[in-house]
């Protein structure tokens, strides 16, 4: 088994895998148990890998891919953002994403109002 420092963690859909970062060989691969379709986010801390998807967070053992626990986070959007210990960089990224989502929502409202005004015209 490769040292966890030599692993690259990847995720796509419901699949999470660890690859040997030097050879690209798959060390382990799992499918998350829930079928929700939101994007998958990954984060590491110590010997654990955290996967967020579909309003759930999964704690995964980095060495073997065993799911240690899972918790629902009662979110309506499905996408899960994570930070350990409130690091400033993680908070900045989460704030930037929230600002982008707000701006996209505002642009959609402005576009809808402009379209309605043009139609009534």
Question: Summed up, what is this model?
Answer:
This protein is of the alpha+beta class.
Query: Which percent band covers the strand fraction?
Result: 25-35%
Shape: globular
Pick out the low-confidence regions. 91-96, 106-117
Largest sheet: 4 strands, antiparallel
Question: In angstroms, what separates the terminal alpha carbons?
Answer: 69 Å
Describe the structure.
The protein has 121 residues and is of the alpha+beta class. 27% of the residues lie in helices and 34% in strands. It has one helix and seven strands, in the order E-E-E-E-E-E-E-H. The chain has one helix at residues 88-120, and strands spanning 7-12, 15-20, 26-31, 41-45, 48-53, 56-61, 67-72. It is globular and about 40 Å long. 12% of the residues are buried. Mean pLDDT is 76; it is low at 91-96 and 106-117.
Topology:
Blueprint: E1 7-12, E2 15-20, E3 26-31, E4 41-45, E5 48-53, E6 56-61, E7 67-72, H1 88-120
Antiparallel strand pairs: 1-2, 2-3, 4-5, 5-6, 6-7
């Amino acid at each position: 088994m490769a040292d966890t420092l030599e692993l690259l963690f990847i995720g796509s859909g419901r699949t999470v895998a660890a690859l040997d970062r030097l050879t690209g060989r798959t060390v382990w691969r799992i499918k998350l148990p829930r079928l929700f379709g939101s994007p998958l986010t990954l984060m590491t801390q110590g010997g654990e890998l955290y996967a967020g998807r579909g309003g759930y967070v999964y704690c995964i053992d980095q060495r073997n891919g065993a799911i240690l626990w899972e918790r629902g986070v009662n979110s309506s959007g499905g996408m899960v953002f994570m930070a350990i210990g409130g690091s400033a960089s993680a908070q900045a990224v989460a704030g930037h994403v929230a600002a982008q989502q707000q701006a996209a929502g505002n642009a959609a409202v402005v576009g809808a109002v402009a379209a309605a005004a043009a139609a009534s015209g």
